[in-house]
Task: structure prediction
Amino acid sequence: MNGRVQRMSFQQFMELTTTLLPLLLVMAVDSTRTVAASSSNQQCGNSLQQTLKLTRFVQKESVLLIKTYKAAQGEMSELFCKVSVNDVPDPNISGLEPSERIASIYTHLQAFMAHFKRVYEQQTDLQLPSSPLLGELTAVSSRSRDLAALMNGFYQSLFPNLPMPEPAGGPTMLPPPQNVFQQKVYGCAVLRTYKEFLSNVARELRTLKGKVCRRRMETNTFLLRMT
Amino acid sequence: MTKSVRVLQLLLLSCFTSAPPAAAESGNHLVTAPHPPVVEIGTDFTATCMIINTAEVTADDLYWKRAQATVPKEQYTKINTTALNVTIHVSGERNEWLFCFCKNVSDNVILNQGKFMHGVLLQKGYRPRKPENISCIALQEETIISPIITCSWDAAGRQTKDVATNFKLIVKVINSIIVNVSTEGNSASVPLNTFPHCMELEIWVEAKNKLGTIQSERLRRDSGYFVKTDPPANIQIISEKSFPTSLLINWNLPIISLYVGLMYEIRFCQNGSHDWAYVPLVDTARNIQSFRLQNFRPDTVYVTQVRCKDHREDYGYWSEWTSNATERTPEDQPKGKPDLWRIVSESDVGERRVQFVCKDPVFANGRIIRFDMKVQEQKDKVKNTSWESFPVNRSDHSSSSTLKDVLLADQSALKVSVTAVNSVGSSAAASLFIPETAHELAPVRELRGGVHGGQMRLQWKPPNTAAVTEYVVQWVSGDGMDWQRENRSTTHTVIKGDLRKFVCYTVSVYPIYSGWTGQEATVQVFLEQSAPEEGPAVRLHRQPGRNEAELEWTEIPQSSRRGFITNYTIFYKSGGELHSVTVPSNTTSFTLRSLTGNTKYDTWIRASTAAGSAEGSRHSFTTLKYAPGEIELVVVGASLGFLFVVVMTMVICISKKETIKKNFWPQIPNPGESTIGYWSPDYPLKAETPKENCLSGISVLDVDMCDGKMVFDEDKTSLPLKKDKYLSEEHSSGIGGSSCMSSPRQSVSDSDEGGDPVDTTASTVQYSSVVASNGYKGQTPSSQAAIFSRSESTQPLLDCEENPDMLVQEGSRHQRRPADNDPAHFNQLLEMEQQEVLEPLDFCPLEEDSELTRTDEQSADWLPTAPASSYMPQLGGYKQQ
Result:
């Protein structure tokens, strides 16, 4: 009698265990995944935050650079800096999807770096070697490289399976040889456009911060539920 | 397991045997392996020695040597008959050889020893250790942060000369470039194009040598973590008159906030002090460029400094401090009371000279330009005295100002009130009461002073009598004086003044009873003692004696003592012998005793304090040969002795007068009393007359040889008179007193006048006895002295006596031989005298006598001297008689 009662209790226990075990497993995995998602989301946020910080920094630095540039060009600098030039990159970010827009930022940065190089070469002929403009141009160019590197890293972290697309228009188109005035106008247009571009980038990154990193977390959670 | 090891060794062997073709080609029969470039110190190293191209020796014949020492066989492992392993522990840092040798088993081996040896060079080193404590910094360069990042680290572990460790500093900008630089030291700088603001850096160091490579921990930080900016620029400090307790500081940013957002730290202190006070960091907000410092003291110079760093916590390094920004706060009305005190000194009888001195209030809040003072005698309380102003002379660097001197009678009491005035206002009044001398309240008890920890400390017990409100501690040294106040509960304190070492301070403690000063208690203290600056100058108090000398010296001047004199040590030295005597400090003279007479002494004095001693100048003196009075004593003694002798002689002479008289002045019979005088028929009465002048009937003349002539003149004048009067006696005298010089002359002249000497002599013969006397011997020992004693006998002369020829012969004999007491001889002498009387030439005057001396050689021998020397004392003797 006692043995039978014991056997029944054991069976009930086993049934209960069989029912609860998958649930416990799901909870355990879910918690693990949640922690992983949270960590990944934090990493995304940090990466985005650092990119945004550098973007703001470069933007402010570009403002200073424009001041320095104008000061270095002599009279009429305010005037010719208002002239629009066709051979500079578009400050607007293209694409619909975040990946496309991030890739657009990246390719724009690459393009601006080529233009900075041209401006630097031109100003090297126009300025004294000790001119602060040359140093600031170098600095902005370097930071553009850094910003591009951060964008690439951010892109890779968000979309590891999507290679960074090549520029749509092929290699960057630089302007043909110019006279001094044209060089001055060109350089100022590049800097001014670059500043505008960085403003757009900062705005875009702020948008992405709430869109990409949260979605990534949601996507991860969804994938976990499916399993 | 063992099998597998063995298999591995065989594999190695096969490799080795194929590896050293060079050895084989060179003809060596032994080959060692391996030949590692470096062996690690502290590990075991195994080498193998193989026999090739010969069967003459086996592995049993091999042995290993390391640094001239054979490796013990326990460390060998025989692989096979042609291979021998050895395992050694690598120690020491010097390179060394490990040789494989072959025993001399055959003549071939002996003759080809070079072919039967092979070695391994052991170049030793340490495996690199992981560099630690990496720190990097990027300094501000002009207006930006320098792109050069400089890092330093601690190289762990050791290196050897041959196996040096190289380091590679690697800086990686995350998601961007990576730059490295190599160095042998512990620091390096990595140049970047620009400083990577807003980027993460990963920095590490790789240590590498022949034994391996190892990396340090990676330092991953935001680039702002390494930034060190310049200090804030153009710091200014502003004093505003309406805010006497605050100062405003302004500065410029050292770098634009785009690159580094800064936070600041401000510190300040009073000028001259290095006790900095820091403004809390929470009060110095980010990117501020001014700050108001508050709660300062008015009219005080403050020094302020500022520094900055990245505003983020743990980011960046603090910059250096700015240079000093110095400013004085504005003046304010004095707070508190001035410190009023008095110096009392004795004046005339019944009066005191009281000098009032005053210090600025503790919170003067500005430059005190004057003190206002009111002096009020206690007897005239009703009288309203006016305030008197005393400008403060600021050129005087002393902390106190002398206000006024007051002559105060002992029976008078004063109340003095003083206020301090600066450019803004005046302070509250400080009051002090000077009581009557007789009514001064009790002093503190058991005042003691000492030095502890380089500070002068005082300790006392409060007076029993009345309630003390405070104490004044006053210290005086030379002409300097200062004081400080202590509260009523104080029983020990430290003097806070600027005391100097080696100076004697007279410290007094005055209890103050509600403003009334009590009696002082005084103690003398040195902050620190040392040896006296100079020693006392010693001198002699008076002329030194024969065995003692009294020294005296003056005390060392107070300014030169530099400590309390504990004792004096007197040194005195003669020759190489040095003596010393120690006397108490209150002694200023000392008598050295037991000195040696007629000796030169050097003496000097050493004055000692608790911390040392100093010797004074040397003084030399020479002790006397004779003690004072010693000579006098000798002289007096000698004189007394002489006197004694004289007296004794006189006493003896007096007591023995008769004996002496008898010996020296024998009784000569007076011829006048002789009965023979009456038998002269011509002058029976006249012969009596000379008795009045000459007791002995002999006229005595003091005749000097030189005065002979004068005597002759005198005699010549008186000659006619005397001829008549004394003819008979003179004639007699010529017989009996041949010693009288005048008598023979008279006799001669008498004979010259025509008298018949032969007849006269023959008719008036007198007896004379000649007595030889010792007394005469003593006077003229060489002369033939003779005493003629007149005989009273009237006996007729013998025949032989009447024969003058016989007398002449006898006289000639008598000249050659001194007279003796022989009666026969006596008779001969008598005859000789008679012969002399009879010969008129013998009694010639002195002139004639002198001529005779020159002509008659015989008479020159004795005639001139005999009468002069023999008769002179005799004349004296007659004078006394």
Summary: Residues 10-21, 684-789, 796-824, 836-881 of chain B have pLDDT under 50 and may be disordered. The first helix of chain B runs from residue 2 to 18. The longest strand of chain B covers residues 132-141.
